[in-house]
User: What shape does this take?
Amino acid sequence: MVYLIQVITMKKDTIAAIATALGESAINVVRLSGDDAFEILSLVFEGPDIKALPTHTVHYGHIVDGAVTIDEVLVTLFRAPSSFTREHMVEIGCHGGTFVARKILELLLSKGARLAEPGEFTERAFLNGRIDLTQAESVLDIIEARTDLSLKLANQGLRGVLRDKIRDFRRRLLDVVAHIEVNIDYPEYDDVEELTDELVLPKVVALKDALDTLLSKAEDGKVIRDGVKTAIIGKPNVGKSSLLNTLLGEERAIVTDIQGTTRDTVEASLNMGGVVLHLIDTAGIREAADAVERIGVERAKNALASAELVLFVLDNSAPLTAEDDALLTLTKDKKRIVIINKIDLESKIGREFDDAVYISALTKANIETLESRIKSMFLSGDVKQDDLATLANARQIGLLKQAAQHLADAEQSARNKMPVDIIEIDLKNAWETLGEITGDTHGSDLLDELFSKFCLGK
Assistant: This one.
């Protein structure tokens, strides 16, 4: 709480930044936020008296530097607290291009504004109570959305649906804790139910089951939001690059009949039914013939180590080799799909694989089957609109798991017939941990890390 007060005090100055991507375009937007936003704008705006105008209005005029006109603009005004930051806020719509927007920004800074830090507008919205941390993260998620599902997920978060679920869960936890506290501090009250470990146990189990339901959907949410690191692995000339090109629908990787054509990793992203695959086509893993190929093989092994999904490709038209068997062993503990490629050719592989997907990267046979397999591995069925409210990102999932562990500890204590004040410790820990998801409890390092990921002007 001390940190929060210090930050709010520090953030009272007026900040400015360009909110749009610089480059040739129809318009750019320059933002101002803070107590002196209207005063600073009035020093450079030639048009109606800004300080006398109502909130949520747009006004035509010119930005001027003394007698010099910088640009013809439209200015949108937002009076506190009816703005994104809950401060006085101004958005200046100027002509596109890098020079004019920077010129306006420099002028505002010379009149007393400070250049905003990355994500500072959104940080102020959080610190001033307009949004919680889940909503702040959803702002960034909307910017970075790459599929319809990820956009729907981000909008659910921005509307505060996840926040409401977490806060409702914390209230349920607090009810149990408060009941225990009354038992401990006021045992003489006859009209208060005495909570024993036996009475606490079903309450704890119900809370833990509800949290487990959130977690089951949260894993889907991480996949929708972040995508899946996917390594295409196999020995040389089995069709890894052909598979990459077929999945992408373009000739991204060089394909020849010469073994070892791919010497380095080739990376690309693909939206597959709402799941973004971050594909890495790797060099064929074998005993390298030269120094360059050796480097490529080493990078392939590094990609395999970090992959969340392995597409392991085998050649249907050639017998299995010791290299194939070695790679099967190497990838057996990874989330893996065995792909038998070149089914358009005579089969000489000599072994059946019950769980394999048989395809032809050349003719695109059974590619839809592969796509369905991938989607089913990472999404627990068809994700409905109502489900999206319970999904979460990696930070939130980690905190949900911590809270679930605290509840598991509380359940174990209750089953071991420990005193209720011991059980209460784990319940309080779960309550505190869930508060970190919404930002109701947090530290300075968390805020610094989260908002540093935003761009300037957001």
Remarks:
- The two ends are 25 Å apart (CA to CA).
